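User: Could you check the structure of this?
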Amino acid sequence: QVQLQESGGGLVQAGGSLRLSCGASGRTLSYVTMGWFRQAPGKEREFVAASIWSSGITNYADSVKGRFTISRDSTKNTVYLQMNSLKPEDTAVYYCNTYPPRATYWGQGTQVTVSS
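Assistant: Sure, the predicted structure tokens are below.
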């Protein structure tokens, strides 16, 4: 059974940075296209970033392009999301999943709150 566990969220002031981590148990992430998603209060979950395993190509939502970076460490079976220049509108629960996401892989997410 695959379990994804997000961590690294917290409260940060606008302009600050956070690094989120996504660890996996039950399967290796080395050959899997992985993504980060987020859900703000009262809104639907949305795509944030993806890392294509076969090419190393990354893709970002326009709202985070240039500020967020997705990366992975195969030795730790972990995917990261480095978030810089955070804005209050980045406040959300952040989730990792495959891309496209699998319904059974959603974890609890990690809360990111950006104060103005």
